[in-house]
Amino acid sequence: MYGRTTLIPFYLVVDVSQSMDGPRLNTANLILRRIGEALAHDPVAAERVRVGVIDFAGASRTVLPLCDLLNTATLPLLACRDDGTRYAPAFNLLRATVDRDCRQLEADGFAVGRPGVFFLSDGEPFDDPPGAWEAAFAALLRECQSTPNIIPCAVADSNPDIMRALAHPAPTVPLFIQSRLASPESAIKNLTEIIVRSVVASGHQEMVVIDETNVHALDTVIVDPPETWIDPDSGF
After folding, report:
1. Can you tell me the distance from the alpha carbon of 20 to that of 38, in angstroms, rounded to the nearest whole number?
2. Which of 10, 110, 191, 225 could form a disulfide with 170 if both were Cys (CB 3.0 to 4.6 A apart)?
3. What is the pLDDT along the chain (236 residues), one digit of tens a residue?
């Protein structure tokens, strides 16, 4: 009797606030296509990886439900919205989505590895009331049946200190920050290659693996724990 196939869910959580409009979002829109191209040439990884996309600005939406990219006829395009930048809706939607997807995959007969999340933002959150995004993030870590690995990707005017707090679990996952002399577009382009290599490698290893080789236009930081100001067991 053969064992169950282990699937690794990956989620791209992408800022689509107005500041991302133009070349930044155009570059981010290439990520899915590049992942699909890589998986098309690697049947082992393609069999074991599923990918979904969530966007966020003032609110958050599921742009692509978790799926087998090679069975997806049309890949969606991210579009900017001019309604602010709030992180809490993204974390709340991600928590509900990960729980639902993991339950469904298990019901379909698969084993499910820890999910991976690439969280890309080019600005600071302006959640109201104060503390809303921290509470949503703490709930994500505390309540998810399969707490994801979260890899923050900070470009342009995102706050490195805030993004640093999102790396989970520290200190085993990196934080990617746009290098000082790089453009946001070049940073996102190089992030795309990191994401593609990581998704493929994770399919082979049956666990989230972050490929940090040949990193350009980005600084890689390994976050020192603990980030106690966002404690999942706090009273948020």
Report:
1. 25
2. 225
3. 467 999 999 999 999 999 999 999 999 999 999 999 999 999 999 999 999 999 999 999 999 999 999 999 899 999 999 999 999 999 999 999 999 999 999 999 999 999 999 999 999 999 999 999 999 999 999 999 899 999 999 999 999 999 999 999 987 889 999 998 899 999 999 999 999 999 999 999 999 999 988 888 898 887 665 455 565 565 55
- Rounded to the nearest 10°, the torsion over CA 46, 178, 162, 128 is -90
> How far apart are alpha carbons 10 and 24 in whole angstroms?
21
Tokens standing for residue 29: 């829109």
Residue 147: count of CB within 10 angstroms of its CB = 17
Rounded to whole angstroms, how far apart are CA atoms 15 and 90? 9
CA 123 vs CA 2, 20, 155, 220: distances in Å: 47, 9, 8, 18
Residue (of 204, 202, 76, 99) closest to 151 by Cα position: 202
Strand pairing report for 60-67 and 149-154: unpaired
Q: Which residues, 6 or more positions from 17, have their beta carbon under 8 angstroms from its beta carbon?
A: 56, 57, 58, 80, 81, 82, 83, 84, 85, 122, 123
- Residue 120: CB atoms within 10 A of its CB come to 26
- Put simply, whether the predicted model's pTM sits higher than 0.85 gets the answer yes
CA atoms within 13 A on the CB side of 189: 9
